Every structure is written in structure tokens, then in C-alpha cells.
Amino acid sequence: MTRMSVRRYIPAVAVAVLLAAQLSACSGDDDTDRVRLGKVLRSDVAEVVEAPATVSARAAATLRASAEGTIERLYVGDGDRVQEGDVLAKIGSPTAREQLAQAREADGSLAGGGVDMPAALDMSGFQRKTDRSARQGFSAARKVALKIPDLRQRALVLAGITRAEGEYRAAAAAARDAVARLNAGLGSVGNAFSSITAAQRVQTRAAVRAAERTVKALTIKAPFDGVVSLGGPAGGGGGLGDLASRLPQQLAGQGGGAGGSAASGLAALGGLGGGTAKDASSIATGAPVSSGDAVVTVTDVSRLSLAADVDETDVLQIREGVEADAEFDAVQGGTYTAEVTGVGVTPKESTGGGVTYKVTLVLKEGTLSGGGRAPMPKPGMSAVVNLRVREVTDVLSVPSAAIVSSGRDSVVWAVVGGRAQRRVVRLGAQGDTTVEVTRGLREGEEVVVRGADSVRQGQELST
Fold it and tell me: Facing residues of 435 across strands?
């Protein structure tokens, strides 16, 4: 099973001091080239977990055509910087404006009592049919809304559907009560019909609001400060036409022509999702667009973050506030600082079959090897982060090569009276070249720092 590598290191100055001590002593046997001695010294040790990472922007939003039409005017180009509220493009859509007019006409007809009451009408059956049509319409709208890829827009649309459903339930309950009174001989047909019509009008008002939202969204504005890219990825849900084909004719056959208007008005909810991917070359004044097509993507690069995939064997060492260094292939010789802001709990299977967890870091400024300021990376760039999970200063330490694993024990060969003595030691922070020893050795003692695997108990070792 593939694991993320773990790099451990100490500062270069400490490494140089230790190596000088190690190379100044060697055995007097024929094993001179294989066994070398050094001393237990004090130094700083840092334990580091290495993990691959990707740069992410603070926020990114793909703004889509709310209805079928053409790009009436385009105000920005690739790479332009914009501020929140700036107008980026305007979509011309006669279809959307016609739907709004129809929705308003249908709502006005119900409001003004322009719908004639059918003769010999079964009020109970009429009410059940109205309820059934409303459930189907709201359910269809919700299914398509759930496919909207933009989470913020999805939440807004779903909230609108939920609000309309709540209003309808209240109106329908009043209508059922009026029908029950009519059937009991306590109410009039006119009152019952008016109550059912009031419930129907909840749907027409929802249709008007949805159509108004669609027309308003034809003017595309920046949701926050950022950098513009024309076009964007494909959406995840159906567009205006897709939703319109799914919604039932809610009021069809129940008086007037409100059914088509209600359905087409609620269909406007779908204009916030779906659509095809668009590149910059296909976005221009006069170019046709379909409902849900990507027009402009705005990316907020004011704060960049790193998403690192940390192996399950290392993730328990990571906590919020841990500092790290980051290196990018795109910035040769550049080193950036970063800090952990969150540790995920959802596992993800790695390509090698292991499990990783997402660790989020805020990316800070970087420096080049020559001392200059490094350019800030772009979203999507890959990096390698070195998370400093444990740092200790002025502790007893030995070179990593001095440690020999023996079952569960960590062993060091000390030199006592010129002979090798086996010592079981306890380790602390484990760097790449140096390891902290918390028990089993004293400062200044001589130990085998090279060829430890070949040493045996009592072997003569002279300096």
C-alpha cells in the first residue's frame, strides 16, 4: 500500500556540527570504512510530514445565462479585475420576458376573479386535483434545483420553493376547510371556489417571482471582487427548457390559461443551473447562449489556500496552527510559508489504495533562493507541503543512522571502555537526519553513527 513519505530534518548548522563530530572518530579495526563513531550532542530537531497539495482560491463563481438568448453586451475580458456589483454582461432574452408577462397575466386573472367557475363542479375532486398538481409541480422544481452546481444559488432557489410550498399548504388547508363546510351545508359554492382559487394563486405568485428572478439575472453582476475569466465549466443540472418539460400544467383544465404560465414561470428556476461548458472564444457580444450556459467566471484570489492530502498514518499529528513550508514546480527555488487552518474528517481513498484526509492551509508569501520575493501561485497549481508537526530545541540527539530497530525497541550502540554496548533508547522528535533521544544516553557519550547494523555486543571499537 502506498504511503505518503515523511521527511524529518534539523537546521543545517546543527547538521554540520553533528557531522563534524561523527567524522572525527572511527574504529581502529579493519572495519574503518564501515563503522564510524560520533558523540551525543544537543541540537534542534524538527519532525516533518510531507504531502501533495493543490492551490485553491478564496472563492470562485461561474455566472450563467438565466434564460435562452444572446449576449447583448459584454463589458469585460479575460484577466480583468472587477469589484463586487460591477455589471459584467447583459443577456437579451425575449423568451424570459414573455414568460414574465404571461405569469403576471395569469396571476392578475386569478386576483381579479377573471376565472369562471365551471358548472356542476365537484369541489372535493377539484381540490384534490389542485393539490396533486401543486405537489407534482413543486417536486419537479425541487429535483431540478438540487442539480444547480452553484451552492449559493441552489440554496436561494430551494428556499424560494420551500417558501412557496409553505404558503400553498396554508392556503390549501383553508380551501379544504371551505369545501368541508360546503359539503356539510354550512358554506356556499362561491366561498369554496374562492378558497381553492386563492390556493392556486400561491402557485401563480411563485411563478411571477421566479420569472422576475430570471429577467433580473439577465444582467450579470460580479458577486465579489476578483479576476474575470470568460466562459466556464458545464453545469450540473437542467436548464430552463429542461425544467419546463418536467413541470406539469398545474392549472390546466381548471379555468383559464394560467396553467402554462405557472409552469413556465416556475421553469425559470432552472436557469441558474445546467448548461454547457464555454470557452473564452465563444463568449462575445451577439453570441447565442442557452439557459444555464457559463458566461463569466469570477475568482477571488485575495487569499489563497492549499488543500493537502495527508496519509492516515500521519494525519493524527496534524492540528490547527501547525506551520509548514510549500514548494511549487512552477516556482523553481521558491519557498512559501503556510499554516494549517483545518483538518478534515472525511476519508478519501488514494490511488495506491490507502486512505488520506484533506488538510487545509492558508498560503502566505514566499521567497526565492536569491532572497527576492516569490510570485504568488495561481489556483490549481500543485505543490508539496512540509508540515512541521513537532519541533524541539536544545535536546539530546544522534544521527538517524545510529538508530537500529530491534522488534519494538530502538537500539543504539554506545562505546564503553572501547567496546560496543547495546542501549535501548526512547525516541522523541524524529528528523530526517537527526533523532531526539529522551532516554538511554547521556550528552557527550560516544555512539556508532555509521555501520550500526554490523556491530555486535562487546565488539572492540577504538577512537
Answer: 398, 430
How many angstroms separate the CA atoms of 255 and 253, rounded? 6
Q: Which of 264, 223, 239, 253 is nearest to 107 (CA)?
A: 264
Could you tell me if 462 and 27 are in contact, meaning their C-beta atoms sit under 8 angstroms apart? Answer: yes
Concatenated DSSP letters for 90-154? EEE-HHHHHHHHHHHHHHHHHHTT-SPPPTT--HHHHHHHHHHHHHHHHHHHHHHHTT-S-HHHH
Higher-scoring residue by pLDDT: 248, 421: 421
Other Cβ atoms within 10 Å of 188 Cβ, number: 11
Q: Cα separations (Å) of 211 from 128, 131, 167, 422, 441? A: 27, 22, 18, 83, 79
**pLDDT band with cut points at 50, 70 and 90 for residue 391:** confident
Q: Angle at Cα 381 formed by Cα 225 and Cα 3, nearest 5°? A: 135
Helix axes 258-267, 189-216, angle to 10 degrees: 40
Alpha carbon distances (Å) from 444 to 18, 22, 37, 71, 414: 12, 12, 12, 78, 11
Contact 451, 28 (CB under 8 A): no
pLDDT of residue 325: 93
Enclosing H/E stretch for 362: strand 355-368
Residue whose C-alpha is closest to residue 150's, from 26, 52, 233 = 233
| Range list of H helices, 297-432 | none
Query: Grid coordinates in use for 429?
Result: 522528535
Q: Residue 292: name the closest of 222, 214, 230 by CA.
A: 214
**How far apart are the C-alpha atoms of 114 and 122, rounded to whole Å?**
20
Structural contact between residues 16 and 376, judged by C-beta atoms closer than 8 angstroms: no
**Residue entry with cell 504531502:** 51
What gap in Å lies between CA 245 and CA 445, rounded to an integer? 83
Determine the Cα–Cα distance for residues 443 and 202; give it in Å rounded to an integer: 83
Asked if residue 320 lies in contact with residue 343, where contact means CB atoms within 8 angstroms, the answer is yes
Tens digit of pLDDT for each residue in 123-162? 667 677 777 877 777 787 778 778 776 677 778 778 877 8
Q: Which helix (H) or strand (E) holds 296?
A: strand 294-300
| Other C-beta atoms lying within 10 Å of the C-beta of residue 82 | 20
Residue 379: in which H helix or E strand, if any? none
- 131, 133, 136, 138: CA torsion to nearest 10: -70
d(CA 272, CA 30): 80
- Cell 386576483 sits on residue: 111
Residue type at 164? A
Rounded distance between C-alpha atoms, residue 39 and residue 292, angstroms: 70
| Helix segments in 323-441, DSSP class H | none
